[in-house]
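Entry 14. Structure prediction run on the chain below.
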Amino acid sequence: MATAQKAENQDGKVRTTVLDEIPVLTAEIQELYCLDEIPWIIGVSWGKDSSTVLQLVWNAIAALPKEKRTKTIHVITTDTKVENPIVSAWVRKSLQQLKSAAHKQQMPVEPHLLQPVIQDTFWVNLIGKGYPAPRNQFRWCTQRLKINPANHFIREMVRANGETILVLGTRKAESSKRAATMEKHQMRRVRDRLSPNGSLLNSLIYTPIEDWSNNDVWIYLNQCDNPWGGSNKELFNIYRGATADNECPLVVDTSTPSCGDSRFGCWVCTLVSQDKSMQAMIQNDEEKEWMQPLLDIRNELDAEDDRDRRDFRRIWGDVQLFERNKDGEKSVEPIPGPYTKYWREHWLRRVLEAQTQIRHTAPQSMRDITLLAPEELSEIRRIWLEQKHEFDDSLPRIYKEVTGEEFQDPRPGADYSLLGSDEWAVLEEICEGDAMHLELMAKLLDTERQFRKMARRVGIYDALEKCFDTSSRSQEEAIKNAYLKRDLKTAAAQGDVEKVKQLTLGDFVVADKATDVTSEQVEVKSEPFVDSTDQPSAAKPKTWANVKFGTGER
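Output returned:
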């Protein structure tokens, strides 16, 4: 352990650094570790904060006698499959070093690389299902890519051991929101230094550097050697390379910026206005220019208005309206849904093109990069075929056009189908450019195909009816119907009977007073209703079908 550095202020008083706190913090970690048999889980991203916590814990446990190192410390890292490639390579290298050092030094440390299930990966949701690029109003990625894999692992540990302690590198200085959250949990502590986990039962949280600043973290990493053979200097250079001016100055006062503010995450992230870290990496280092295709895709995804790329219906097929307030002007508009078939195929092509280009231009150590794994491509293909009913099966064709190779689908029986691109072409010709007609016919044909081999075709009529519910109206008719439903619901909620009758009668209600429908006429009673198109003597029973559609004997 490095010795504490001291300096003198202008008034002659001794100023200490964070290193003076290390002995006390080490004793605290050792005490908590030896206190019980509850397993520890350290969540690391291999950035500066989590690396600091892992190093502190490692050094503290290494100082214990071997007979006291009885409790396994699980180190978990989540690979979202869309991490910044430079950071991803650093993470995998660090995990390998950690595993090797733990074995050699007889440390009770066990690393785990977690990944989201295939159905939850970024590209399966965006290209397969058509989810739009994430926004703060629809932040669908974080839960699927990061939280779910970690929570699943923690729940399994709780199930096996009854309880667990999660060690994190979160700090109050990161943001005011983070500080408020941490202070709220601290007030509910049932044990010293251990806070309850708000989302997982029987899981306590330990945050050893919660009061440290950015500078404290960098002072510790720069002054204390990495105990598992990693390089804190390399980590420092990664952060430095991700700042716009390529400098990480010595911080001497609060006005001096720190490279520790650099943020690393998914290269596809559209929750920020710009990916400054990747831009800076490309700008600062010619050897990293090969990442430009990734940045281009990310910027193309981050369109300010992508309504022209998306369906007018939500993903389940209904038109949903929302009230928009822009510059004081209120309007009711349809909520755009998933990306259309054209744009889903476009993103597939763009990602495969980037993958192919990078494998030719990247440094030798990065040429095995995979942006879209075969399992993800297979799941995207399955969604397009079975859920979207797009039996033209365009994925293998696009894959071969971009890569020059045949797509080998790992899913058994994936290449067997009664309908294919030839049938799709015939259907397009029959529908003569009517997109909704094409969609409806494709859904009906493919739904029948899916039920074809079932011994009991239970549910086929419901499935066919759903096809009509979602695809039988044109865009204009579907939106008009959505407004009608909204107005009817509003009128019913307000108790406006006349408005409900007017909307329900639809085209039957006319402006001419002579043929206007009064409340007495539409009441369902025994009195006969006389259609104006019939003779007065041709009285018929009054029904809603007569009223709404003007049906009668012909």
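Residues 141-161 form the longest helix (21 residues).
Filed with the rest of this week's runs.
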